[in-house]
């Protein structure tokens, strides 16, 4: 096309413009229009071409306003050398003092940018040449000092106390280092469209009604970002859902918008009230407050009305093929696809009245999806009462029909979903446009998976049924209720999601990365206490007082301003069995005959005087003497201890599965149930913990000194506390 206007020989600049327009133009219907401007030399620069591409992208409807287009692209605008010289002179005059002070170390890009802002359509190279010329005239040639590199400004490091801030929840935003997630989601970071500019998204289908519908949409939302988290209430949320929650709520929050919690309750056979409650509880536990809690069933009347309209428009029909016949990617075409509209309307009404049995009739939409699936089902018959609508309906809409229309009703701007829904994007756009209703934009991202676990509802149910785990909240699972029970703070899960980031590719992560996030948060949040898992009785024969002493123990030794708790110290204490040996080697630094140790926080050093054993030769008690730390020789180590302790049960958890991918037949030929780790749970029934934790409530968290981070389990009752180990103090190198 260009050669027909310009002849066979094209100059390099024109060729570059032609290449760019062909590569960057998304809608080819405007290609000839733009090539004409390039061939006639009315678009001469890449700057003009970028403006032209943006204009046609922002004006999807025909015909284009030519005069407005030319004005927006600088067609016919002539910038003279004199204008460029004057603009550069004005900018250099503005920064003259800094230029003379910094000379060639001054940021010349600033001069370029300001000059270009004064002359929008001026050629960039011409401006640069003029800037170089005038700077040379002002400063003269470069000296040796000018050629030296400018020293980099030293970065100020945040103080540790500032770096790790306790989490606060404000207006649904989790405010710790998770700000990094909000930074990832803010503004242009993801190249998402702005509200009302849906048509700028690649693949978005524009109809003659699109612009009017978008105008109405903006009038309703005021240009606000709207997202939604749409779980099915037929199971418990897992770690993958945490990413979806953070993405949907986080993106809305980062951009001043709102997020709906919408239950996709279109399958009454599998839905239970406990799932509705647990889902909302977990969303709020992660620190987010929904703008509104809605249900797909709120819109059943409107969805039914739209289904009738779809039939009237010839875009849907009642079909009698069996479920088995339409499964797979190449099912036979429906013999009822072209049945008369009036007939489908009558039959659909019969479906609603219960005149067809389950599986005898469906309503199908007339379209072919990306994956080749033809005519997806919109409605099916189910004689199951709905938990909210009761017996009103015996036909229920499918995900393919419901989801986009609910998004439309709620004026969602960004319908964020995982990559497996990409094949449904065409049906999403098609259905909204077929009904002439507002059409949101569906964006897909990669889902989050963890190694050494399973998250599918079906497989977790099998684990529960076989007794491999107790329930959905068994702390060895990675459901959100299980993670909470194990003691993972919500901030740690949010931080983990932030580190994983939002990517198109699926992310499969090691559990130890989540555990590392937990350690960071718990180190700041969990007060210290002392506990002994395998107690060994120790009697201090020269106890320095006639009655028990009180020892002040800092809740956070690194920051004593955060308070203390009192621990009794009396002649009988208990230490870990592993902190005593009768025979020692050079590497062993704890208690042994002839090798004293310090007692943490007590201010005393103890030395063994007598080892008492049972009939089997096992050590059952030590008799020791104590010396104040300030007069005793400094010991090689300090150990934790308890006195007048509380009896408690401690549950120590390891990975539930032995292999990274328990669902992979090549890795685990016998199936995931054959891969269970026999040592995934060890229960310590006779552990002891200091009395400072006596008033702790369910899910309260502590660092048991030298042992790890622990959380109070809901099984705790008066007189017998139960603790779950969340993570060890340090990562096990064998797990990394």
Task: Walk me through what this model shows.
The protein has a seven-stranded mixed beta sheet with strand order 14-26-27-28-24-25-15, with helices on one face. Strands 19-16-22-21-20-23 form a six-stranded mixed beta sheet, with no helix packed on it. The chain has 23 helices and 28 strands. The longest helix has 16 residues, at 124-139. Among the domains are: 2-73, no CATH class; 81-140, Orthogonal Bundle (Arc Repressor Mutant, subunit A), CATH 1.10.10; 528-728, Beta Barrel (Ribosomal Protein L25, Chain P). The model is unreliable at 156-179 (pLDDT under 50). Helix 2 (12-24) runs antiparallel to helix 3 (31-39), helix 6 packs across helix 8 and helix 14 packs across helix 22. With 736 residues, the chain is of the alpha/beta class. 33% of the residues lie in helices and 18% in strands. Residues 224-523 form the Glutamyl/glutaminyl-tRNA synthetase class Ib catalytic domain. Residues 526-626 form the Glutamyl/glutaminyl-tRNA synthetase class Ib anti-codon binding domain.
């Amino acid at each position: 096309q260009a050669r027909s206007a310009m002849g066979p020989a094209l100059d390099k600049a024109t060729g570059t413009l032609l290449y760019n327009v062909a590569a960057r133009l998304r809608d080819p219907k405007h290609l000839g229009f733009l090539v004409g401007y390039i061939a006639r030399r009315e678009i001469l620069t890449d700057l003009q071409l970028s403006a032209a591409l943006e204009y046609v992208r922002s004006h999807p409807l025909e015909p284009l306003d030519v005069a407005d287009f030319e004005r927006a692209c600088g067609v016919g605008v002539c910038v003279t050398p004199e204008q460029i010289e004057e603009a550069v002179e004005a900018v250099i005059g503005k920064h003259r003092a800094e230029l003379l002070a910094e000379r060639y170390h001054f940021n010349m890009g600033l001069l370029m940018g300001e000059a270009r802002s004064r002359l929008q359509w001026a050629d960039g190279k011409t401006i640069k040449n003029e800037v170089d010329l005038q700077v040379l005239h002002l400063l003269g040639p470069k000296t040796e000092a000018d050629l030296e590199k400018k020293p980099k400004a030293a970065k100020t490091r945040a103080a540790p106390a500032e770096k790790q801030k306790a989490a606060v929840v404000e207006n649904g935003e989790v405010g710790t280092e998770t700000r990094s997630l909000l930074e990832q989601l803010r503004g242009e970071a993801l190249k998402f469209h702005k509200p009302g500019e849906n048509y700028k998204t690649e693949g978005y289908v524009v109809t003659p009604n699109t612009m009017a519908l978008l105008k109405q949409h903006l009038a309703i939302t005021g240009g606000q970002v709207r997202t939604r988290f749409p779980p099915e209430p037929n199971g418990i949320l897992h770690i993958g859902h945490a990413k979806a929650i953070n993405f949907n709520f986080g993106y809305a929050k980062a951009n001043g918008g709102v997020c709906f919690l919408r239950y996709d309750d279109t399958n009454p056979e599998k839905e239970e009230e406990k799932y509705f409650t647990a889902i909302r509880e977990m969303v709020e536990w992660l620190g987010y407050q929904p703008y509104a809690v809605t249900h797909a069933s709120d819109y059943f009347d409107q969805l039914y009305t739209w289904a009738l309209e779809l039939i009237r428009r010839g875009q849907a029909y009642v079909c009698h093929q069996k479920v088995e016949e339409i499964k797979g990617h190449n099912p036979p075409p429906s013999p009822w696809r072209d049945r008369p509209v009036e007939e489908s309307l009558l039959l659909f009404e019969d479906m609603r009245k219960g005149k067809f049995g389950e599986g005898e009739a469906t309503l199908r939409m007339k379209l072919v999806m990306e994956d080749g699936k033809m005519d997806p089902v919109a409605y099916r018959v189910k004689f199951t009462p709905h938990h909210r609508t009761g017996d009103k309906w015996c036909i229920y809409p499918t995900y393919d029909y419901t989801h986009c229309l609910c998004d439309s009703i709620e004026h969602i701007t960004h319908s964020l979903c995982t990559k497996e829904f990409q094949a449904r994007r065409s049906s999403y756009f098609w259905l909204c446009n077929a009904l002439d209703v507002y059409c949101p934009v569906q964006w897909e991202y990669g889902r989050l998976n963890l190694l050494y676990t399973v998250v599918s509802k079906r497989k977790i149910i099998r684990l529960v049924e076989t007794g491999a785990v107790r329930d959905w909240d068994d702390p060895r699972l990675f459901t959100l209720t299980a993670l909470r029970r194990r003691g993972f703070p919500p901030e740690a899960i949010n931080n983990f999601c932030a580190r994983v980031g939002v990517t198109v590719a699926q992310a499969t992560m090691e559990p130890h990365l989540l555990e590392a996030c937990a350690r960071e948060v718990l180190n700041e949040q969990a007060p210290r206490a002392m506990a002994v898992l395998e107690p060994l009785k120790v009697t201090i024969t020269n106890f320095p007082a006639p009655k028990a002493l009180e020892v002040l123990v800092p809740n956070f030794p690194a920051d004593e301003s955060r308070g203390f708790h009192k621990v009794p110290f009396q002649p009988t204490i208990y230490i870990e069995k592993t902190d005593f040996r009768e025979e020692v080697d050079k590497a062993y630094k704890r208690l042994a005959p002839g090798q004293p140790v310090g007692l943490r926080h007590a201010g005393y050093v103890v030395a063994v005087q007598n080892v008492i054993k049972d009939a089997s030769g096992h050590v059952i008690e030590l008799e020791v003497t104590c010396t104040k730390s300030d007069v005793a020789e400094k010991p090689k180590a300090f150990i934790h201890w308890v006195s007048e302790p509380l009896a408690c049960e401690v549950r120590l958890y390891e990975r539930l599965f032995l292999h990274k991918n328990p669902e992979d037949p090549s890795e685990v030929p016998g199936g995931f149930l054959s891969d269970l780790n026999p040592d995934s749970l060890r229960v310590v029934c006779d552990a002891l913990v200091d009395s400072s934790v006596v008033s702790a409530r369910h899910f309260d968290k502590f660092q048991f000194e030298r042992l790890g981070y622990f959380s109070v389990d809901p099984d705790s009752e008066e007189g017998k506390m139960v603790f779950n180990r969340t993570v060890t103090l340090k990562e096990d190198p064998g797990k990394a």
